[in-house]
Amino acid sequence: MAIHAEGFFSPYQRCGLCPRSCNVDRNAGAKGRCGESAVLRISSMGPHFGEEPPISGTKGSGTIFFTGCALGCFFCQNHQISRKGLGENYEEEEFLVAVLALVRHGVHNINYVTPDHFWPHVRHLISGLRRHALSLPQLINGSGYHTLDSVREMAEYTDIFLPDYKFADPGLAKYCADAEEYPEIALQAIECMVEQKGFLNSWPVEEGALSPPATKGVLVRHLILPGHIENSLLALTTLRERLGAYLPLSLMSQYHPNACCAGRGHFQRPITQEEFDRVFDKAMDLGFKNLFYQDPGVGAAFVPDFREAEPFEGNRVRP
Ligand code: SF4
């Protein structure tokens, strides 16, 4: 039986919500590369303290983790939900009620993690939040693997983009995610985000001070991969050339091997301090002015287990 065939949900009919452009009828139950039909599935929702300071703030980011992923890197630290399908079905009304409950926690923003393949649901939800006069910043936390049409539409409904720039090396993108075209697709998507929203609008007023919660703009993330430092150096050089030294950039060092990394060389280990230092030094040499970074080992409390009610140990110790 076809569901959601009309209105907000028609994009599921011949799905081209991401660059994979599978053209399957998800309303009829078909699944494309993201592994999901048009039935909304969510793995976890709650205040999250593992994002960058202007995003997590002091009250947390209201994070929603969707099941499935259009990019599907084998090393994903969220592989239980992105590749293994852990999650629960939600009706549209249930989704709205759950998000309103999240808002009551006092979070600084609503943070949609890799939402591309469920964008029609998210768009519908945000329209519902607007009807409730909710003005909390809406944040797209994505893989960087987006169509330009989807970025432009997301920009109409949301305030902050937190895209990854994972791969500058097409060969590595092919090996990790079967997406050789990722480097240019992601760059164009990020450029489009910056055009629409500018750079993230929250920085500490003085050295050592807390950043106020961000309300608008773009912050790009790059996860350093073990044994693939050249990819990171090229990623930073390319971002600097295309978007300038003031691009807000977050260097992430929390790579943690999952079961799918077995037998895959360097992917079976965390990054080393030396690898991190080489990438950090490159960011400094390139003159990035707005840089977040995390020393290796610091992010261990935010390696999730989505079988737990609260998947992140780092969130459990909060009041
Ligand atoms: S969202 Fe899923 S089904 Fe749609 S094009 Fe992307 S991978 Fe394919």
Question: How would the blueprint of this fold be written?
Answer:
Layout: E1 41-48, H1 53-56, E2 61-66, H2 79-82, E3 88-89, H3 92-104, E4 110-113, H4 119-131, E5 138-141, H5 148-157, E6 160-161, H6 170-177, H7 182-197, E7 217-218, E8 220-223, H8 229-243, E9 249-252, H9 273-285, E10 291-293, H10 313-316
Helix pairs in contact: 3-4, 5-7, 8-9
Bound molecules: iron/sulfur cluster (SF4).
Question: What would you note in describing this structure?
Answer:
With 319 residues, this protein is of the alpha/beta class. The chain has a single domain (43-316), classed as TIM Barrel. The protein has helices spanning 53-56, 79-82, 92-104, 119-131, 148-157, 170-177, 182-197, 229-243, 273-285, 313-316, and strands at 41-48, 61-66, 88-89, 110-113, 138-141, 160-161, 217-218, 220-223, 249-252, 291-293. It has a seven-stranded mixed β-sheet with strand order 3-1-2-4-5-6-7, covered by helices on one side. The chain has a three-stranded parallel β-sheet with strand order 8-9-10, covered by helices on one side. The longest helix has 16 residues, at 182-197. The chain is globular, with a radius of gyration of 19 Å. The termini are far apart. Bound molecules: iron/sulfur cluster (SF4). This is Radical SAM core domain-containing protein. Its cofactor is [4Fe-4S] cluster. GO terms for molecular function: 4 iron, 4 sulfur cluster binding; metal ion binding; oxidoreductase activity. Belongs to the organic radical-activating enzymes family.
